[in-house]
Amino acid sequence: MTIVHTVQGNRILVAVHGDLDLQTASPLREALDELLDRYRDKGLVLDLSEVNFIDSSGLGVILGRYKRMAGRGLSLTGVKPNVRTVLELAGITAIIPVSDARPSTKDQHV
Amino acid sequence: MKNTVKMEFLSVPDNVGLARVAIAAIAGQAPFSLSEIDEIKVAVSEAVSNAIIHGYHSRPDGWISMTAILDKQGLNVIIEDFGAGIADIEQARQPSYSSDPERMGLGFVFMESFMHELHVESTVGKGTRVEMQRFSRIQGELSRDVQ
């Protein structure tokens, strides 16, 4: 799994590449927490365009960041149908905005 | 369409993906759709993750066995560990039951939702056996000559 982050305005856009499971949950959690600590006033957009698989270990990372961010704003984008099925079953779509389309950005890499 | 595959692997997180790839390859031999195979992969991923996290408390030296039996009914998957076991299976199967705040406690919920049958046997100190079945659908069209 690799992640690429871009800071744009008041949000951190993180593009995740790879499966989100028990193997990748810990490194993803650590990377996201580092970004959230570094940019304390910004929201988080997770781009899942390159994520083909997610299970409850991956969901736990997303839900854990949602709780940790306490209203800073978290959304998911680029969600594939099979990933959306898992998100819906877990009730994530009721609390976190989820979109299928990739976000349009004029990326400012940092 | 009849096949049986047995494999054993250590309780390391890297093997969760290995189990998924293997079950997808086996399920691909039956008339499952791609979305059905995706769902079977989630169920297997959850069962193997449970074996690692709860069966072996994330120790990397435990053995997990996966048996996949393919027949005309569909796919039967058995995931077995020889670790801690589950004291209260009914409680463990409840949504949001988890000892870890970063985990959602949805492992068994996903297994139940994505498979048609789920049977769990466990003995404390001896291990846990999860058996799940996904039935395959056979779709077709009967045609006859009409004159």
Question: How would you describe this structure to a colleague?
Answer:
The complex is a heterodimer of chains A (110) and B (147). Chain A is an alpha/beta fold. Chain A has a single domain (2-94), classed as Transcription Regulator spoIIAA (2-Layer Sandwich), CATH 3.30.750.24. Helices cover 37% and strands 24% of the residues of chain A. Chain A has three helices and four strands; from the N terminus they run ββαβαβα. Chain A has helices at 22-38, 56-69, 81-90; strands spanning 2-8, 11-17, 43-50, 74-77. The longest helix of chain A is centred in the first third of the chain and has 17 residues, at 22-38. The relative contact order of chain A is 0.21. Chain B has one domain (3-135): Heat Shock Protein 90, CATH 3.30.565.10. Helix content of chain B is 33%, strand content 28%. Chain B has helices at residues 14-27, 34-55, 89-92, 107-114; strands spanning 3-10, 63-71, 74-81, 117-123, 127-135. In chain B, helix 2 (34-55) runs antiparallel to helix 4. Chain B is elongated, with a radius of gyration of 17 Å. The A-B interface holds A 19, 21-23, 25, 29, 53, 55-57, 59-61, 63-64, 81-82, 85-86, 89-90 and B 13-14, 16-17, 20, 35, 38-39, 41-42, 45-46, 49, 52-53, 100-107, 109-110, 113.
| Rounded average pLDDT of chain A | 91
Low-confidence stretches of chain A: 106-110
The H/E string of chain B reads: EHHEEHHEE
The CATH class of chain A: Alpha Beta
Q: Please, what is the CATH homologous superfamily of chain B? A: Histidine kinase-like ATPase, C-terminal domain
Q: What is the overall silhouette of chain A?
A: globular
The whole-number mean of residue pLDDT values of chain B reads 91
CATH architecture grouping of chain A: 2-Layer Sandwich
Poorly predicted sequence stretches spanning 5 or more consecutive residues of chain B: none
Strand order of the largest sheet of chain A: 1-2-3-4
Q: Greatest chain-chain interface?
A: A-B, 21 and 26 residues
Can you summarize the main beta sheet of chain B? 5 strands, antiparallel
